[in-house]
Write a structure and sequence with these properties.
32% helix; alpha/beta; 15 strands
Amino acid sequence: MATPCSDAFVFFGATGDLAYKKIFPALQAMIKRDGFDLPIIGVARAGWTLEQLRQRARDSIEKNDTLDPDAFAKLSSLLQYIDGDYNDLTTYVKLREALAGRSRPIHYLAIPPSMFPVVVQHLSNSGCSHDARVIVEKPFGRDLASARDLNATLHAVFPEESVFRIDHYLGKEAVQNLLYFRFANTFLEPIWNRNYVDSVQITMAEDFGVQGRGGFYEEVGAIRDVVQNHLLQVTALLAMDAPVGRDVEAMRAEKLRLFRGMRPLDPKEVVRGQFRGYLDEPGVAKDSKVETFAALRLHIDTWRWAGVPFYIRAGKNLPITTTQVVVDLKRPPLPIFDEITARESNYFRFRLSPEVVISAGTRVKKPGEEMEGENVELVARSSPLRDKSPYERLLGDAIRGDTALFTRDDSVEAAWRVVDPMFGGVRGVHIDPPTVYEPGTWGPPAAAKIVASREGWHDPKPEESHPC
């Protein structure tokens, strides 16, 4: 039986930064592409009028996308606004009135997580949660204990199948391509294991700092901001076994099994860094110990991956903005023609942003009489593909009730279990303060020691153009 679609879209935090950067452009795209035709009810406590919100939506789209006159006119006609305090029951009475005739609303909580309990309880008390869905933004807690508390708060009102936890990374086309490439090609399966894979490296680099959002970053840091969610999710897609069926829950079950196989981080195998100048950012404490860079070694205790190190690093003010995965294969057991170093062994490379690239590193013979080789990269896919934005895709899926690209409660908690030792989750464990690194470098020098057994990190470089 098909899951019924939501019949109204409510978003709390309508005047906020997330709505401005992501939600309004996504709504226009959904109207233009899919004929989106639901009431759009913005809720905020800014003291605004509906006309001010419409102007905010126009400014948002003009800055972050391209304004389509017809689609924006439709968006304006669908848009409503409720101004009120999230702690005031009157706000939800107004919302109930605005939802008159609508029986399956979806509520997007684009607000600080500290306000989730208040809003969720008022939605319940006002009757606005009946047969409704709820979308929540990351971070899903600050550690394992708070994630459990957050899940309990949501489940007190909404069943798990009605909770949609957005991780926009899972909506990226390149990430979906990674999953497809793995399970649509039979040649990978025989070698996608500890017998042939030497190591895996995942790098998420940004060439900019905190961009004036120091106060926000003080609450998260690199591990909470991108490692616990984005990069562990990418790791799961790389390392999970094939699901037993096509249904969504089969896929989510395999991801959960993989998360449970991840060993909690050992702080001795984690290097934290902080770019020089971070302490001068507005909103940042002068003695801040928050990391803007993290490099770590992750172990997955399954038969497929036992003994294969997964190296993960992420940071700000690095040389380039990109996300890249490199799967290094083991060297041939004997050098028949010439010596092949670890750096020259075969590999698969996945560039997830800003370009979409899937390639394989191989050895071929150099021209001439000598049996000597050189490295050649075979590009299977190279494209600056522009498809649906992650928010367009994810909001559309949530409205349709499709949970495939959303994170389940048990997976959220399993991912927090992995990183919890870095946040006081294990008594008696000492966490070293971050080491200062220079902007434009690949983090503190100690990060190189994380992969000392190999020939170092694969530092991403600007992508060359390839014929498609």
